Sequence to fold (383 residues):
Amino acid sequence: MDRLDNTIRPYAWGSPTAIPHLLGTEPTGEPQAEMWMGAHPGAPSRTGRGTLVEVIDADPEKELGPAAVAKFGPRLPFLLKILAAGAPLSLQVHPDLEQAREGYADEERRGIPVDAPHRNYKDANHKPELICALTEFDGLCGFRDPLAAAGLLDDLGIDSLKPYVDLLHAHPEDAALREVLTAILTADPEEMSRTVAEAATACTRLGGAYAPYAEIAHHYPGDPGVIAAMLLNHVRLQPGEALYLGAGVPHAYLNGLGVEIMANSDNVLRCGLTPKHVDVPELLRIVRFRPSDPGVLRPEAAPDGEELYETPIDEFRLSRYVLPEAGSAHDLTRATPQILLCTAGTVRAGEHDLTPGRSVFVPAGEKAEVSGTGTLFRATVVA
Fold:
């Protein structure tokens, strides 16, 4: 197996301290948002044999296994991250596989450069995600019941929000949510900025359930995404709990440290809380306008101490091992590629000692015995 040397991305929303604290390193004073583990071409992990992209390209079947190559092609189909949100990320949604293929082909036909700021589809893949909390982790996930959203907006006592409140009482629910989100994102920018400022003041005064939105408005003053965020469920994960974000589900991460895994894609449609491009017509085509429970996941016990986070897709499979004592060993050998990530304690993986934030890549079929005292996340595929 190969020890991984991973890139940390300094996005502006990142916490300057959470990842250094996990790694036991000194903060640089700059935000450290994500540490990437995998073979994403934008920042592939490095090994003693070259980048993980180069290692896999040299012999895909040996590194990934015949079954994974047959199902996903000669590439690692997932990206594993440690994500540290010190401020809210953009409110966003991801396409399903068919929508991604159609959108990518359309923008290719129209000759839109892949790096153009108004380009929506960077590739032809979908981007389901799973975030597992390492600390308390706040996020937004899926639409509230429209009547609950109406009550939340109405209690702010702001006249300019009354039309949205009235719309949210209409039926059917999906049409009401679509109409309100459309109205928010297409409102006059100056009028919306005033409404958001009033809402921020009211949220600060009311506190409680409104506190997350006051914090969002602090980071994104005047952004229509502040009002759009109030249409969504607020959820606070405890360590070990997770959220699965499927296609069409609007979401945003607000604060906290977690392990994130996703299909290898960069396709994001933004709804707000961002200075980046918001393509309202395309966004409305992708969003699934139905209220839903956030669906907090807790790991399900599997044989040999494995705790599995069940998801409905095959590009990734995330589980964890909580190893209580140094004497016990677990054989994690699989016929599919794996990344093993330590998040607590010290875990021996093959010949490598892993401390928090350290990881290894295990080629398909290679012996993978682990022991020690700590917490180990295992990322692989279903093939």
Notes: The chain has a mean pLDDT of 96.
